[in-house]
Amino acid sequence: MAQGGPERTAGGGRLTMAADPIRAAGVVLLREGPNGQEFLLVHRPGREDWSLPKGKIEPGEHLVTAAVRECDEESGYWPVLMAPLPSQSYTVGGRPKVVNYWRARVREDAGFAADDEVDQILWLPVADAPTQLTYPSEVGLVEIAASLEDTVPLVILRHSQAQKRAKFDGDDDAQRPLSGKGRSHAKGLVPLLEAYGITSVNSSSSRRCIDTVRRYAKHAETSVVEEPALSEESFDRDPVGAVRTAVGLALAAEPLVVCTHRPVLPEFIAAVAGALGVVPSEKKWRGAWDPHLPPSGFIVIHRHFGADGRATVVAVERHDLDNIKGG
């Protein structure tokens, strides 16, 4: 659960203190109320404050998973993450703390249960944020979240670590399996993909890609849609086929993940950017579209689909199983 509260904001810049920062995550949970958008806030009796759902990450936990867990624990609402919001930096007991936030919507309501950490929750109109939230920095987050549009995620994933080619004794490299570490990472991807509400699972037809997303597909009670054009072998023969597949997936208005290979990623990501009207070299993207991903690394492209069906990019973020990088 969340602990402490802001003692000093740092204006969004990097803190220069020597101590490693405390890492935390939270959400601005929004819904449509009778008079427009409402946001969720929680009351912590130990601090006597009203704040957004947030809290420290647990050992070995990813920030994305922590944001979902904290909202669930504090409010009973299971969220789906949308666009990332500006992080907040401040000090707690002389130690720097950094909190990452996401705009979110409700996926499931398990019911609120008061405890010593949080004894009340409220849904209020966004306009009430300045008078109800204790911390001004969180007011700004609510206003930013409310100004953004609903988004649909496209997750571009590099397959998990595979058995080394030199160790594989099969005749068909497309059948090369994941390594033990790769299988572990595939399991670790499940709560991360679930956090974004992924419903469509797409993959290169190679075994190492399918096995990277198979566990999530089973968890989501869906099947893996094979995309043969995204295998290394097919890409070598016909890169245009991979581009066509990329464009189709970029414009599909459903929450989806697509798993492919390192050599395919540069052309694939460039094609997705082009289909969405993005110039990746523009300063505002700050390398967010860089195709160099580690095994199990992924890019989340938050797309908004207008009434005319046209897609625009609201935000992009990059992740692996250990770190988070906003973009």
Briefly characterize the structure.
The protein is an alpha/beta fold and 327 residues long. It contains eight helices and 14 strands.
Q: Kindly, what is the distance between the CA atoms of the first and last residues, rounded to a whole number of angstroms?
A: 27 Å
How would you classify the helix and strand content by structural class? alpha/beta
Which H/E pattern describes the elements?
EEEEHEEEHHEHEHEHHEHEEE
CATH class bucket of the largest domain: Alpha Beta
CATH architecture of the largest domain: 3-Layer(aba) Sandwich
Q: Give the uncertain stretches in residue-range form.
A: 1-17
Number of strands: 14
Radius of gyration: 21 Å
The CATH superfamily label of the largest domain reads Phosphoglycerate mutase-like
Q: What count of domains describes the coordinates?
A: 2
Mean pLDDT: 92
- Residue share in helix: 25-40%
Kindly describe this structure:
The chain is of the alpha/beta class and 327 residues long. The chain has two domains: 22-147, Alpha-Beta Complex (Nucleoside Triphosphate Pyrophosphohydrolase), CATH 3.90.79; 152-326, Phosphoglycerate mutase-like (Rossmann fold, 3-Layer(aba) Sandwich), CATH 3.40.50.1240. The chain is built from eight helices and 14 strands. Strands 1, 2, 3, 4, 5, 6 and 7 form a seven-stranded mixed β-sheet that branches. A hairpin with a 2-residue loop joins strand 1 (22-33) and strand 2 (36-44). Helix 4 (180-195) packs across helix 5 (207-219) and helix 7 (239-250) packs across helix 8 (265-275). The radius of gyration is 21 Å and the shape is globular.
